[in-house]
Automatic annotation (TrEMBL):
<dbReference type="GO" id="GO:0008482">
    <property type="term" value="F:sulfite oxidase activity"/>
</dbReference>
<dbReference type="Pfam" id="PF03404">
    <property type="entry name" value="Mo-co_dimer"/>
</dbReference>
<dbReference type="InterPro" id="IPR008335">
    <property type="entry name" value="Mopterin_OxRdtase_euk"/>
</dbReference>
<keyword id="KW-0560">Oxidoreductase</keyword>
<dbReference type="InterPro" id="IPR036374">
    <property type="entry name" value="OxRdtase_Mopterin-bd_sf"/>
</dbReference>
<dbReference type="InterPro" id="IPR000572">
    <property type="entry name" value="OxRdtase_Mopterin-bd_dom"/>
</dbReference>
<dbReference type="Pfam" id="PF00174">
    <property type="entry name" value="Oxidored_molyb"/>
</dbReference>
<dbReference type="GO" id="GO:0005739">
    <property type="term" value="C:mitochondrion"/>
</dbReference>
<dbReference type="InterPro" id="IPR014756">
    <property type="entry name" value="Ig_E-set"/>
</dbReference>
<dbReference type="GO" id="GO:0043546">
    <property type="term" value="F:molybdopterin cofactor binding"/>
</dbReference>
<protein>
    <recommendedName>
        <fullName>Oxidoreductase molybdopterin-binding domain-containing protein</fullName>
    </recommendedName>
</protein>
<keyword id="KW-0500">Molybdenum</keyword>
<dbReference type="GO" id="GO:0030151">
    <property type="term" value="F:molybdenum ion binding"/>
</dbReference>
<keyword id="KW-0479">Metal-binding</keyword>
<dbReference type="GO" id="GO:0006790">
    <property type="term" value="P:sulfur compound metabolic process"/>
</dbReference>
<dbReference type="GO" id="GO:0020037">
    <property type="term" value="F:heme binding"/>
</dbReference>
<feature type="domain" description="Oxidoreductase molybdopterin-binding">
    <location>
        <begin position="53"/>
        <end position="235"/>
    </location>
</feature>
Length: 355
């Protein structure tokens, strides 16, 4: 790709915040402490989890950088970075989460493969960029299109990033064309994060943001966009991030029997306390995050201080001091909801949260 290249080694990696817990050094995968994660509604860039599959790409010449759009469309097009920045800009507050978040806890029950994340492979940011629906309209794909005249039903994003899982080829993923062409889905080609240009770890100069969907579909360091008939056949679409019953293991798995995971499930995490933490009896503030995929919102967060026998409803909020109401018009529908509750802990117990 002119203007953007993927290094062959890790000698030119960017600097990272020293508080991050490193789960893998090469490629670099790291997350912040859970207490720092919910210290603010919008996650600071330096505390946003880093999920990488290879060396971080380098921009050689931003003026030459462009994205190739081709496939089952009438008119293929090269879209330069300056062209994208001339389109109407949208800011979308959205939570990104690695599909492997909380894998360490999962492995306590049953060993799973992949990077061993704790609970912080997630973050909430304000992403700025052009809507993909506007870009596709420029090349003759109208808004709310589910199939092009040539039979294109999916849109594939290909990265400059090279990864081992693709046998040295580029990272790639896809979403349905109907989602890409829907302005209400808020799919972005983003060049800003929290009001600043993307940094290298998070996709500079351009990445995809697919709100409400697992982070694996929000491809970084965008190289090309392909309109295709079937969903992407890449590793992370076809041989990872799928849901199987307990009877399936690595010896009898049949990947073709399950669809790729897209919207992430409803979940909640306590972040103010560590697992198996010793605290003195008395008043304790319990806080954390709750999140759901597909922009569905969080209707309730309940907390138990007796191992699930009884429950109390926690306060939910996105903006400090303003109660969160599911489906409220002033809420960020793609973003997490923070919760808190102060309780009186009389003795040793198990504290649980559910959303």
């Amino acid at each position: 790709m002119p203007g953007l290249s993927g290094p062959s080694d890790y000698s030119q990696e960017p600097s990272r915040h020293p508080c991050l817990h490193i789960n893998a050094k090469e490629p670099f995968n790291a997350e912040p402490p859970r207490s720092a994660l919910v210290s603010s509604y919008v996650t600071p860039v330096e505390l946003f989890f880093k999920r990488n599959h290879g060396p971080i790409p380098l921009v050689d010449d931003i003026e030459r950088y462009c994205v190739d759009i081709s496939g089952l469309i009438e008119t293929p097009k090269k879209l330069y970075f300056r062209d994208i920045r001339m389109l109407p800009k949208y800011n979308v507050t959205a939570t990104l989460q690695c599909a492997g978040n909380r894998r360490t806890a999962m492995s306590i029950t049953r060993k799973v493969k992949g990077v061993g994340w704790d609970v912080s492979a997630i973050g909430n940011a304000v992403w700025g960029g052009a809507k993909l629906a506007d870009i596709l309209e420029l090349i003759g794909v109208p808004k709310l299109t589910s199939c092009t005249q040539s039979g294109g039903k999916h849109i594939e994003f290909v990265s400059v990033d090279k990864c081992e899982e693709e046998n040295g080829g580029p990272y790639k993923a896809s979403i349905p064309l109907s989602q890409a062409t829907n302005p209400e889905a808020d799919v972005l080609l983003a060049y800003e994060m929290n009001g600043e240009p993307l940094n290298r770890d998070h996709g500079y100069p351009l990445r995809v943001i697919v709100p409400g969907v697992i982070g694996a579909r929000s491809v970084k360091w965008l190289d090309s966009i392909n309109i295709i008939a079937e969903e992407c056949q890449g590793f992370f679409m076809q041989k990872d991030y799928k849901m199987f019953p307990p009877s399936v293991d690595w010896g009898n798995i049949n990947w073709n029997t399950r669809k790729p995971q897209m919207d992430f499930p409803v979940q909640s995490v306590i972040c103010s306390l560590e697992d198996m933490q010793s605290i003195k009896p008395g008043k304790v503030r319990i806080s954390g995050y709750a999140v759901s995929g597909g922009g569905c919102g969080i209707e309730r967060v309940d907390v138990s201080i007796d191992g699930g026998k009884t429950w109390m409803e926690a306060t939910r909020f996105q903006k400090t001091g303003i109660p969160y109401i599911a489906d409220g018009i002033s809420n960020d529908k793609w973003a997490w909801v923070l919760f808190e509750l102060t309780v009186d802990i009389p003795q040793s117990t198990e504290i649980i949260a559910k959303a």
